[in-house]
Write a structure and sequence with these properties.
By secondary structure, the protein is of the alpha/beta class. It has helices spanning 47-55, 67-70, 93-105, 124-133, 146-153, 182-187, 201-210, 240-246, 263-280; strands at 31-36, 58-61, 79-81, 84-85, 88-89, 109-114, 137-141, 167-171, 191-195, 218-223, 231-236, 253-257.
């Protein structure tokens, strides 16, 4: 049965709690799990993550937790949306930190579930610091970060012998300008993966070109990675901002820059050749 989340888009009071009169009298200390849900495919959840979800007294989930994963929430467990989208945060981060502390101090087991991995652009470090400083027991359960999951589902290795010996993750989210050493980034000879970079596509392209990266460097834009409606759009460094607009790409999306992107076509050709051999055998 699909789980129907509670109060999905409303602001969450800091002292929000499970409606259980015994909770305040419970002498045991609660625990908070910061859970990585991965990029979207529910089958990519770890066993440990699913165990935490099923053990929780209350669940707080983010914008990037897919409907497929939300459907796994136990139907009798309150699940509250605390997500963030650009210019629209359901709850300020400081209030969310306090909310997690309060729930655990009531003796509740709390599952704080995030898309991807809590420690990769997920503000998991901030939440863990707040919990530890308050003396709350907390554990982080890693999840598959979007760069790894989405690139794999798109047949794009992040590293490949003779092409890329490293990979660098960069956030495209910034209040005003991206504080990045673009020249150093362009000279790394790494695969570059930009999270939350759609609205900065023009800046990313222009700055990497100015830093010395070739205009024909392959670029992949992966929309809704690891989900049923994943789209892979292939372009190059000079032209990919136009592709973002032309294809009406929406978040969540990743931007992958590097020659490993060219392996996608080669890997797909191999699939087609093997299928042709089977059909003619």
């Amino acid at each position: 049965m699909k789980h129907t989340a509670t109060n999905t888009k409303a602001a969450i009071p800091i002292n929000s709690r499970v409606n259980d009169p015994q909770a305040a009298l419970n002498a045991r200390s609660g625990k908070v799990w910061l859970v990585g849900a991965g990029p979207g495919d529910a089958e990519l959840l770890t066993v440990k993550a699913l165990r935490a979800i099923n053990s929780a007294d209350i669940i707080f989930y983010d914008q990037l937790v897919s409907e497929e994963i939300c459907a796994l929430f136990p139907k009798n467990t309150p699940a509250l949306y605390v997500g963030k989208v650009k210019n629209n945060h359901s709850i300020p981060q400081e209030d969310l930190n306090l909310l997690l502390v309060n729930q655990a101090q009531l003796g509740l087991n709390v599952c704080r579930i995030k898309g991807g991995d809590p420690f990769v652009f997920g503000r998991g470090g901030e939440e863990l610091l707040a919990l530890r400083r308050a003396g709350v027991e907390a554990e982080v359960i890693p999840g598959i970060t979007s760069a790894s999951g989405c690139s794999t589902y798109a047949d794009i290795p992040l590293t490949h012998r003779g092409i890329a010996q490293g990979c660098t993750f960069v956030t495209g989210h910034a209040e005003k300008t991206l504080d990045v050493n673009w020249s150093a980034l362009a000279q790394l000879n790494h695969t570059l993966v930009f999270y939350m970079g759609l609205t900065r596509a023009g800046d990313i392209s222009a700055n990497l070109l100015a830093g010395g990266l070739a205009a024909d460097t392959p670029v992949a834009i992966i929309e809704n990675g690891c989900r049923k409606d994943q789209r892979d759009i292939i372009s190059d460094l000079k032209n990919f901002p136009e592709a973002v607009l032309r294809e009406h790409v929406k978040s969540p999306a990743l931007i992958i820059v590097g020659h490993v992107v060219s392996l996608k076509e080669q890997l797909q050709v191999e699939v087609w050749m093997q299928e042709a051999k089977r059909m003619t055998a």
